[in-house]
Fold these 2 entries.
Entry 1:
Amino acid sequence: MSSRHPDPAELVACPTCDALYRFAPPGPRQTASCARCGTVLFAPRPGAIRTVLALALAALALMTIALDYPFLTMNANGLTAQASVIDAVSSYAVDDMAPLSLAIAVLILLLPTLRLLLLVYVTLPLVFGGRAWPGARTAFRLNVQLRPWSMAEIFMVGVAVAMVKVADLATISFGPAFWAFAAVALLLAAKDAVTCERTLWHILRAS
Amino acid sequence: MAHSQSLLTARAAGLVACRHCTHVWPAGTRTCGVCGSALSSRSHDSLQRVWAWWCAGIIAYIPANLFPMMKTDMLGSEMASTILGGVVELVQHHAYFVAFVVFFASICIPLAKFMAIAWIAVAIRRPRGSVSAHQLHRVHDVVEFIGRWSMIDVFVVAILSALVQFSVVVSIHPGIAAVSFAASVGFTMLSAQALDPRLIYDASEQPRHE
Ligand SMILES: [Zn+2]
Ligand SMILES: [Zn+2]
Ligand SMILES: [Zn+2]
């Protein structure tokens, strides 16, 4: 059944160790791993694309709340200060540190939002059974490549540390944006956990 | 998943594999026809790029530890704290767990990352007996996974500066170390990403051709 020179179109290679396999899509609850290095190659889950789309849309909606409302409110000696996510981002803009301010804006706001938009663009037509929209492959590639640089969840841990540091200066209360952003961070992580990149590539190739 | 033949690599089969979408193309193909990524059977400049970003990371890491990360202005007197100083301060406040998190993220992870990347890059070049490709690859994966978390302290300073601006009593400003530390984290992330893991496995098991 296997010819000596199989068509490259039927083959896949492990991105980690280059081992070559004949592509056989695993069953709905199965996982295909590389026999040489153990890298998980394909882990398709039924309804994953729909779940990913739902998570991404929910995260986008919450992101708008996270941007508009106060993030943290601080009370000290009768004085109150509110800080939004934008304030935190632009805090480096003073003292000639605008480049860092920009970098932070990119890491915690721009990239997470962009990745969500790209993912919605890729998955929306697939969920409704249609063909992928033009440029969907570029959009998905960008979404994957930007993944390590999107740092919303790390920012949330930073918030927790910051609160401990000011605990004896002031009392802190959470604004709506805090909860919204925390939820965004969770949804982003859940969305990345559900996405099987390489399965999606095979779907995009077929569509 | 069925092996097309037992442990044949794409390169040995005269093919070039896409590291993003796993599709394979005839050797010499420049761009992946499925996802549009640039293809190369092995990035031969991989190790050069690893070392270049690694050096940039080290260079940025030195001022990050020497200069203040955060300047606290309290009643007109300015207090500057370095990364390590910030950890000591947390310990003095008996916030041991948070102190540990910051210490781990800003001091242990960066140092361990520099050592781990250098170790992998050196080990790739020589035939190794004791260290298996699997171990090297696992270290690489850990470095890639955990490296981004060093950014915590940069965010902490950003949040504190935004929050503690409101009174004449206290104000907090970011120090120059915040910039170089952020740069150092970015450079080491690029260094780890530049490493082509296929080189790790190539060295461990020569593909059977020729
Ligand atoms: Zn493999
Ligand atoms: Zn590809
Ligand atoms: Zn790896």
Entry 2:
Amino acid sequence: MSIYVCMVCGFDYDEAAGEPGSGIAPGTKWEDVPEDWVCPICGADKSMFTRQGGEEQKPAAPAPEPKKEAKAINTNYKLQAVMASNLACGSKKQYREELSGFMSQVADFFEARSTPQGDLDDVLDLLAQDSATGYAQAFEVARKEKDRGSQRALTWGEKVSAIQATLIKRFNKDGDAALSGNDIFVCDACGFIFVGQEAPEICPVCKVPRFKFNKISKEASA
Amino acid sequence: MKAVRNIRLCTKDCMCLYVCPTGATDTENGQIDASKCLDACRACVDACPEHAISKVPFNYPPQQAKKDNVLKALRVLLDSKLKQEQALDNIIKTSASPAQKQLAKALKMSTRLMAEDLLRESGYMLPQGAPAREFLQGLLDKEQEEGFPKEAVEQGLKLL
Ligand code: SF4
Ligand code: SF4
């Protein structure tokens, strides 16, 4: 019997014990756990698990064929919006409310000019690209340069991106039922997303407590 | 150093108001008036029963310089996150399904947080740092469209 470990939150799936909480009987082999089963702690799908003591970390996913031809997209306005919103957050952290307000005004100006463009498949293609090459390459240089801060950001980002992709795939497959009237919670520190009745007690990715989660409720249907 | 108050912990009714020699703690907006706070004093920090006050530096040391190859690799990821956000904006704007909109909103918030984190690691940790200043000055130096909040940028630069 083997143990499989969730790369996002560290949850152990022990074949001997199964996971009765999500309907997996003790003694269930990993191969026999249904493909749509997700980690009971963080919601990561089976592809995010590796066998404990397995020879390699994560099977290098082959760069996936993008579903669509990549379009040229002007991200200039969006870039400036994010630059400014980041400065607004940074000012707040230093209790500089006035400065934060000015930066928010700048962010709003550019945000309003950014062109909405694309759909969920585009997001999925980009996430697949991030996962196959973007994070791997950035990790490599950040490690080489011993850039601790960047490695931390990449560790969180890679995990959160994986969760994002899982959620989109689930939504594409099950439609509205994927959320089944639940609220969605977003960790304010790392961006981890959780679907459920209540946010997790601590964020499985960055470990901040529950009160740091933002709740996104279902919109009233038009 | 200046005193700051964690509003989440503060019960808004007690000791710091009495002990402050300058009245800096007594404000309507919940925060401590930094312009009145004395650099070497920490009377309110010690008096607060809720541990709601701490002293933070007026000025922070500059962020560690980043290597060019790291910046380049982070930039690739950042570009991808920007495109993802624009796709999510489109879903939020046009989708007829409330559930899909809800999901897109959560994804957008999450994507924005990751994009900001990548920026912080790219040298934009502190608003008062040189890269942030250059960004703001650059906005002023360029011709901008109608409605550009020029004054906010100028005031911001002054406050930095
Ligand atoms: S540190 Fe001293 S001067 Fe500053 S707010 Fe607290 S009591 Fe007042
Ligand atoms: S002493 Fe502490 S808890 Fe009391 S009002 Fe001041 S900051 Fe708030």
